[in-house]
Amino acid sequence: MTAETPSKPVLTGGCQCGAVRYAVSAAPNRVSICHCRMCQKASGAPFASFADIERSDFAWTRSKPSSFKSSPIAERDFCAACGTPLSFHVIDGPRIEIMTGTFDRPDRLVPTRQYGTESRLGWVVSIANLPSQTTMQNYGPEKMATIVSHQHPDHD
User: Fold this and answer.
1) In terms of Cα–Cα distance, which of 29, 11, 12, 38 is closest to 113?
2) Rounded distance, CA 146 to CA 139, Å?
3) Among 22, 40, 143, 150, which one is least packed by beta carbons within 10 Å?
C-alpha cells in the first residue's frame, strides 16, 4: 500500500484540520486503551486508545505527520498544523498504533484490552455513571446555530 494508491481501504482517518490523512487496508490486530503516564501526556487525556496495525496495511495518504521521539525506542506522530495526536510506533518496528479517535468511524474500533493500569486514574472506572448531555442539550439551539466548525469532515 502506498501513499499514492492505497489498496481498498477498510478504514480511513486523519487529523482535525485535514492536513494529514491515512488509510488502512486490513482490520487492526487489536484495539486497546493505555493508561500509562506517557500516553496521558501525549494525548492530553486520562487515557489513549489505539488500533494496532501492520505497517504493510497502512499508508499516510495526505501529507506526513511530524514526530516526537518520546523514548529511545518509540515515536509519536502528530499534525504540525493542528496538533492532533495521530500515532505511536516503535522506531523501525513492523506495526503502527493509530489513535482511535482520529478514525473517520471510531465507533468501529472497540477496545478489548487495557495497558498501563498502574497509572489509571481512579475516577475513570465510573465515567459511565456520570450525568450526561448531548452537545445540543449543553449549548442549546441558539448557541449551536452560531458555531461554525473548522474541522475536516470524517471522509475525503
Assistant:
1) 29
2) 10
3) 150
The whole-number pLDDT of residue 8 equals 75
Instruction: Give the containing element (helix H, strand E) for 143.
Output: helix 135-146
pLDDT for 2 equals 47
pLDDT at position 9, please?
Answer: 79
- Residue 99 CA, chain-centre distance (Å), reads 2
- Whole-model pTM: value is 0.90
Cell 456520570, located at residue: 130
What is the DSSP pairing of strand 48-54 with strand 30-34? antiparallel
Strand spans (E) along the chain = 11-14, 21-24, 30-34, 48-54, 58-62, 66-69, 74-78, 85-90, 95-99, 113-115
Cell of 155: 471522509
Check if the beta carbon of residue 119 is closer than 8 Å to that of residue 37: yes
For residue 118, pLDDT beyond 60: yes
